[in-house]
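Consider the following assembly input.
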Amino acid sequence: MTTEVDRDELIRRLTARVEALEGKATNESITLGVINGSLDYTMAAFIVAIGAAVYDLEVDMFFTFWGTAALRDPKKKAKKGFMDKMFGVMLPRGAGKLPLSHLQMLGMGPVMIKQVMKKHGAKSLEELIADAAGLGVRIHVCTMSMDLMGFKKEELFDYPHMDYVGVGSFVDMFSKSKQCWFF
Amino acid sequence: MTTEVDRDELIRRLTARVEALEGKATNESITLGVINGSLDYTMAAFIVAIGAAVYDLEVDMFFTFWGTAALRDPKKKAKKGFMDKMFGVMLPRGAGKLPLSHLQMLGMGPVMIKQVMKKHGAKSLEELIADAAGLGVRIHVCTMSMDLMGFKKEELFDYPHMDYVGVGSFVDMFSKSKQCWFF
Amino acid sequence: MTTEVDRDELIRRLTARVEALEGKATNESITLGVINGSLDYTMAAFIVAIGAAVYDLEVDMFFTFWGTAALRDPKKKAKKGFMDKMFGVMLPRGAGKLPLSHLQMLGMGPVMIKQVMKKHGAKSLEELIADAAGLGVRIHVCTMSMDLMGFKKEELFDYPHMDYVGVGSFVDMFSKSKQCWFF
């Protein structure tokens, strides 16, 4: 028969194992990377973000590379050097100007797909971003990408839950998330 | 020394912590999103789906945006309005007609890659889909994307484990999955 | 009041539940798929891999489809048949020759973005690969893709932690990983 001392030892060991499992457990959160920067992929990211937030998951969005172009506010301007200015002109100026991911596939442009979306009562990217803000979805902008694209903080749109982060913060984010993937 | 009452309390607390961990634990399943709609990405998705199913993981595939075009059956037709008909013509009519993801990269078309695959004894997308069906891989079609693309249920191919879902179901799916990512 | 026999039974059951949870627990590792084969996506994959490795996560990278082209060493050659040779010429010869993912979006080529990266002190893909090697990041090459692309082992660059795997190994990898996603 098990003695009391044995029993205490069993409980101690079990507690240690539970603690180890708790250390590995994820939060009720997901991390969505946005790298592609096309209208369709960026919309898909926000649709998932909103859906997850509605179902009580916390959502961290990480915008990197071409993804950052969606965050530009067409009404804002920033002082820039020559090279950054050139990039600024070539890259889409905000959510309203994103291209489709598959131009070659379609023979149709973002204008056509936006008409179709309107007809079907689907929300525009700008409306999706506003919904995400209301639901507390957090936007984290990759500082390295901002540098690379020559974007300045003062030309991004106003968003209540936005900050600028490095790769370390991103690793931290996805390490504690239920899921992480890129659009 | 630990009293019996202490001991009972320890066990009760430990049980509560184990229950909390069990609530967070994932199923032996993965969720694969298919958004890109190119031949190579869609094949990659089915190859992973089949591999995972063979190793006893349950697999849920979520088809959205351009991904849905792979599900069209070229032999089926549906009544449509003008705009939907136009989209229907422009978008690939099923797995046999998907473009490659990187036309510009290659200077080669899907025809050439299919020849190479045949030469190497690799299965076609149609064969992969049949294998996936046999292994119980589930296909969930995004209703919003069906609307947007103007696709009707009656023009999708017959598949034994297919249903139509909204974003909520998708969130539910990936929340309990080991992994979720998009192709 | 709980008897000693009840208590032993409680502990036994709890131990079984903890064991079940431990069987499902993930390793402190992530799996990153590289499928796209563009300069920007492949760089993003290595930047995440390095960031994760610095923060003590083990990193497995799985190179498949176009992703494998980044692993070619431009100084190495391999004997090939006609078709494989043609593919070999059309596909990028190593990390230094990768295209951008969005040519149409930019009106700028890889040359321009490399200049910008240099100006901002960002590392080149070749330097990132060397850093990843130093941190123990593992590279797993999809054998099926090697066959399909007509690549031979002797034309890939030397990397201290590289092996060749099938889909089964990849499933094994991501099943025990905290996260898995594709670039």
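Helices of chain C lie at 4-24, 39-54, 82-90, 103-106, 110-119, 125-134, 143-149, 167-175. Ask yourself how this observation constrains the way the partners meet.
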